[in-house]
Design a protein that fits this description.
- The protein is mainly alpha-helical and 136 residues long.
- The protein has one domain.
- The protein is built from 6 helices and 2 strands, in the order αβαβαααα.
- Strands 1-2 form a two-stranded antiparallel sheet.
- It is globular, with a radius of gyration of 15 Å.
- The two termini are 27 Å apart.
- The N terminus is likely disordered.
Length: 136
Amino acid sequence: MATGTPIDRPSAFVSLTDINNQVSFFLEGRYQQCCAHCGRIKGSWQVHHVIFRQHCRKEGAPQYSPDNALRVCQGAAECCHEREHSAQERIRVSDLRDENIAFAARWLGPGPAYEYLRRRYEDDGDPRLDALLEQP
C-alpha cells in the first residue's frame, strides 16, 4: 500500500488518500465535470494539482492523489489553468474542493497549508481557510 495516513479498517478498503496514480487523478478530473473556476462544461480541460507536483515531491506527498485534483479549463481564450499558472487570475479558495484543503492540511500541516493556499490562491474569505488555523 502506498504511503498515506494510517488506515484503521480492513486492508480490503482503500481510501482515496492511498491512491497515487495518474489514471485515478485524471478520472477524478473527469468526474468533476466542469471547470472549478469558471464553470465551463464543454471544451478542453486539465486536472490541476492544488498542491503543485514539485511541492508534493518535496513533502513526500502523493503527486497524483485524487484528493489533490481540481478540474480547470484549458485551450480557450480565457483558459483558467494557464491564467492560474501565469498569475493573471488566481483560482479562488472557494473554488477548491473540501478534499483539496484536507489534502493540504494532511501533508503540509494545518498552519503551512493555510500559508500555502493563501499565497497561491485568491483568498476570498472562505471560512475553510481560517478553519485551518484552528486545527491543532
